[in-house]
Records
---
Amino acid sequence: MSRRNFVVLLILAYGLVLTTCSRPSSRVYIVEVLNEFPHDPYAFTQGLVYAENDTLFESTGLYGRSSVRQVALQTGKVENIHKMDDSYFGEGLTLLNEKLYQVVWLKNIGFIYDRRTLSNIKNFTHQMKDGWGLATDGKILYGSDGTSILYEIDPHTFKLIKKHNVKYNGHRVIRLNELEYINGEVWANIWQTDCIARISAKDGTLLGWILLPNLRKKLIDEGFRDIDVLNGIAWDQENKRIFVTGKLWPKLFEIKLHLVRHRIPDGYIERHCLNLRDNTLSLKTDID
Ligand SMILES: [Ca+2]
């Protein structure tokens, strides 16, 4: 099948059939699976980072099951694990200067680990409302807390540098979750959707959407009924590989993006990637 036919097929499969549509205000992508790798089906993935040599670091959540782990990409084998205290619910994770930084749910504290041993070497406090996602461009930390705010954080003082309110067509893009910095952009899983937002790291502009419903559907079709939502993005800068997985997913996918060149139906992104009713409610509490 030609690439054009492949893209057309996927567009039809997603219901992106053209009717009376308006031009999208940002780019939309669908994904092709290039490779599948095993992933611990008991890992409630909250943070995912690619290091090098087919090695990933992963943070998992749930009380009593939270951890930071080193994982072999090819086998999914957990090569090293730090089990967190039962009082913590692990969230976002990133790797900066040989140290792993992790935030936790419903608390303003975070943990720093030695990446070689996964030993906890220091704690920190941050100024986000909550701890959801973390990423880095190699200089600063980017953070999310479940609102529409993308935070820039100083990795030495953990003070807030700047914050961006991410919007799409005037709507706040709430539930920014797991993050990854990729070539000047911060990619964000939107919690409880099959969508990843591509956000300008410079000014918080929403640059595009990646639609990935085919991944969760594929797992369900294969009989994996107990999976949770898409979550976890990792980027191999050297080999330009993109990896994604989900909470309790038995697989991790290497994906390739395809730009949707057709117009998409009005309201498609709002329905599938945003929760407008909740978004309206959040206007009272979100930070401008
Ligand atoms: Ca990530």
---
Amino acid sequence: MVGDSSRAEAVLNQARDLDPVSFELELARRGWANQSGSEPEVLARRQRISARLGSVAVAAPERADAWIQLADYLRSLGNHEGALKATASGLKRDPVNIELWLRRTRAQVELNQLDSACRSLRHCVKLAPTHDGVEAMIRVHPVCSKCRALFPTPGAEVCTHCGADGPARGAPVASVRAARQSKFDIYFPRVREVVARALDMPDRIKIQLTLDTLLKRHLKRSNQQCAAVLRAMSEQFGPAFDLPLFNSAVIGFLDILIADLIRAIDPRVDKGIDTGIRQRALSNA
Ligand SMILES: [Zn+2]
């Protein structure tokens, strides 16, 4: 707000007209940005601001924006317990708010509650898999490839959970995202290849084919085409199919057929995947 006071005034008046909570949030932002005075004075001002913002949020618990701002202020004051509580209060009213979930995860990491942080981060991935903040958090906090516990930093020496070497010692790490992969995610790239080849799809169409389009759209195809896919899948995964499941696969709708066939693959028998992936597929099957 430096240098353009009339515009700043307009914003403030607008907020006042809008609603009292937005007005308070804007006031708090200004007070927080005010650097005048000695260091202890600035700190004391910021503590007053976050205390006031705390009562604003309590009075309007449905306002996620107030809880978010409060959590951010408390974090920069080093009050991670407070930040954690603020996110809990906000999530009570708005349980799918990804901004609150990200701040909750961060507070848990700061408090060294790594198991909880890991669960929260998995939840973030589920809620908003492509959110920038989620992506960033996943990069900063890899998981142990042995026990899937969260590393507090990308340069951690050891896993505090199982004692395995951390990324700082050159150990390979995994990501929370990979731990959530289901058998469908794991087999999808190979299945897509097989299906595209069997149906003679142009590359342009093949690229557009996602797991969702393969499994959720009712892709009516001729019995001939379904049979071609069935044949191609059998060539690729033949010995790995669980026979009763394979025999119950339904020809008619391509998506149902593909889902049936992926379900019928037994990762224990499939030689085409490495052991790590196989174990993951088994634990998620
Ligand atoms: Zn570990």
